[in-house]
Structure formats: structure tokens, C-alpha cells
Specification:
The complex is a heterodimer. By secondary structure, chain A is an all-beta fold. In chain A, 0% of the residues lie in helices and 55% in strands. In chain A, the strands form two sheets. In chain A, strands 2, 4, 5, 6, 9, 10 and 11 form a seven-stranded mixed beta sheet that branches. A four-stranded antiparallel beta sheet of chain A has the order 1-3-8-7, with no helix packed on it. In chain A, a hairpin with a 5-residue loop joins β4 and β5. The termini of chain A are far apart. In chain B, a hairpin with a 5-residue loop joins β5 and β6. In chain B, 39% of the residues are buried. In chain B, strands 2, 5, 6, 10, 11 and 12 form a six-stranded mixed beta sheet that branches. In chain B, strands 3-9-8-7 form a four-stranded antiparallel beta sheet, with no helix packed on it. By secondary structure, chain B is mostly beta strands. The chains are: A mainly beta, B mainly beta. At the A-B interface, β5 of A face β5, β6, β10 and β11 of B.
Chain lengths: 114, 111
Amino acid sequence: DTAVSQTPKYLVTQMGNDKSIKCEQNLGHDTMYWYKQDSKKFLKIMFSYNNKELIINETVPNRFSPKSPDKAHLNLHINSLELGDSAVYFCASSPTPDILQPQHFGDGTRLSIL
Amino acid sequence: GNSVTQMEGPVTLSEEAFLTINCTYTATGYPSLFWYVQYPGEGLQLLLKATKADDKGSNKGFEATYRKETTSFHLEKGSVQVSDSAVYFCALQQGAQKLVFGQGTRLTINP
């Protein structure tokens, strides 16, 4: 059973397009996250939601807009894609925002901008 | 702000060699410390953690000890296997739910 699932796994698109990445977790967790991993494997948090409410919003261009329709889903919509957006995006979840609770990661979505 | 610095990779070892991946951190107060592992084509998985000074986290033969005096959390394994080939991330978390990761260290184990 997949605990944290992201779709699509690969996304290739042209500069200027708008795209969405979906994330769903079936663990019953309250908290979900989006991370960006660049070509050098550096991983940075972008957003975090707890029970559908935004709790972490790092310095991310406002072309990136997360949406949480319910606590099991956290989707990432990106407008006007740029070359620098090429990366692997990871969704994660944890039972609560409590730092002692480990985060469970999805397998990632590799976004390539042409 | 908080930060994590890891030993630069890539690291290549032979099977059964001893492994150390260095990790040091900068933080105020007492963060929790973690090692995550990323196998090829997969997401990150928690490998081990320590929540206070002198705690030792261990899992799958890997160990790391939270050293407050040297602000370090080095990852060690006595005898590595080919299946340990992955990217390893040191991370800290403090206060409001924000994991801060190091830059990752790619480990390759040759048979």
C-alpha cells in the first residue's frame, strides 16, 4: 500500500505553462509538506499544511500555490513555469506538526522545463 | 538561522568497509537531529533520530550520537553493504515543524 503518493511521477512541459502536482496520503496524518530538491540534491521545504491550514510558507515565488481540499491531499499548482523550476518535488506527511513525529515522503515528481 | 553541513560526497567504499558521514549543525537551543536516506528513484525515509544531547539513534546497523559540545551528529556503520548505496541527508528540526536538511551525501558501495 502506498502511504504517500504523488502524481505524476514525471512531468515534462514548456516554459510558460501552468501545471499541477497532486499528493495524497492514506496514513491519516494531519500535516503535509512540499519540498523541492534541486539538481545538486539539496532539499528545501516550500510549504506545510496542518489540517488544511497553511503553517509554513517559505520564500517561494507566488507562482507556486498549494491547495489542500482536505487533510489527506495537498496539491501544488505552478503558474508560468520557468527553467529554474526544473527539480524533483517531494510531498511528505507526518501525524502532527510535532517535531518528534517522523515525516513520510512520497517518491517524488521530476519536473523538467523545456 | 539554523543550518546543517554535511561532508561532501560522493563517497565510494568497498563492501564491509567502515563508514562515517560527518554532519555538523548550527542552531540555538536544542534541536532534534535526524538522518534520512534516499534510495535511487525513491523518496526519503527516516533512518534514525536523536532528540537530546548524548542520545544515540540506531537502525539497520547505522548509528549516530547527538554531540552538543561539538554540535555534531555523525553517521557511522561498521560494515557497509552494496544495498546501502544511497544519498544520506542529515537534518535538524526545532520549534515550529520545519525540517532543515543538509546538502546530502551520495554513498556508493562496490562489491
